[in-house]
Recover the amino acids of this structure.
């Protein structure tokens, strides 16, 4: 399927009135055309997995085309080089989250990249590290507890980053991992309580919000 035809299909689904709503949620709309995510997902079903088309759609720079690219990309063909290249071009939290949750978390590099990106200085790349942790907690059903336990010290280390899109991602990862089972719940609660002792508003917010959801929650072992 030629890229031009896919873009034309996206444009048929677009509604410029959505742009204002996207802006209200802090989404960068400089290259957006106003297509709702459910519509992007429905369109993606027409193409199945197509790595070549995915790469070409990403290259257009169009906001919704990049989200579509993350849905139809083949995680078995994604390379570390591609992951690094795409994360460097993240310019909006929603693209970051969609790419990590639709594609990157299913690659064999996901755990290593979660560690790598979580210590990056650039806000959206750093966010990607913690989004990967959160998405792995949802999608990697058979992953060992040890992997997730190894993420908690990273969250604790980076909890003092007050940037909005970083602290929210740390919070998300902490909560999502803590909801996997009782062992991880206990570790997440302990991590949050240590965060509360940090001299950091960001750390205290992350911890307080997470504890509301994780404490007294009954989970399977």
């Amino acid at each position: 399927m030629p890229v031009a035809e896919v873009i034309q299909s996206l444009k048929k689904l677009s509604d410029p009135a959505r742009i204002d709503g996207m802006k209200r949620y802090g989404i960068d709309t400089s290259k957006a055309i106003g297509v709702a995510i459910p519509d992007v997902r429905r369109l993606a079903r027409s193409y199945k997995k197509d790595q070549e088309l995915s790469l070409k759609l990403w290259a257009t720079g169009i906001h919704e085309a990049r989200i579509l690219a993350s849905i139809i990309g083949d995680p078995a063909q994604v390379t570390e080089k591609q992951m690094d290249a795409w994360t460097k071009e993240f310019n909006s939290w929603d693209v970051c989250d969609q790419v990590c949750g639709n594609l990157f978390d299913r690659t064999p590099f996901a755990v290593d990249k979660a560690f790598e990106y979580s210590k990056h200085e650039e806000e959206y790349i750093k966010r990607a590290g913690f989004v990967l942790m959160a998405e792995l907690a949802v999608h990697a059903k058979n992953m060992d507890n040890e992997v997730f336990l190894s993420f908690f010290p990273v969250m604790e280390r980076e909890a003092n980053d007050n940037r909005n899109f970083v602290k929210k991602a740390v919070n998300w990862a902490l909560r999502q991992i803590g909801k996997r089972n009782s062992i991880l719940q206990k570790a997440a609660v302990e991590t949050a309580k240590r965060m509360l002792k940090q001299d950091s508003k960001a750390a205290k917010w992350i911890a307080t919000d997470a504890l509301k959801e994780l404490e007294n929650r009954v989970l399977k072992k």
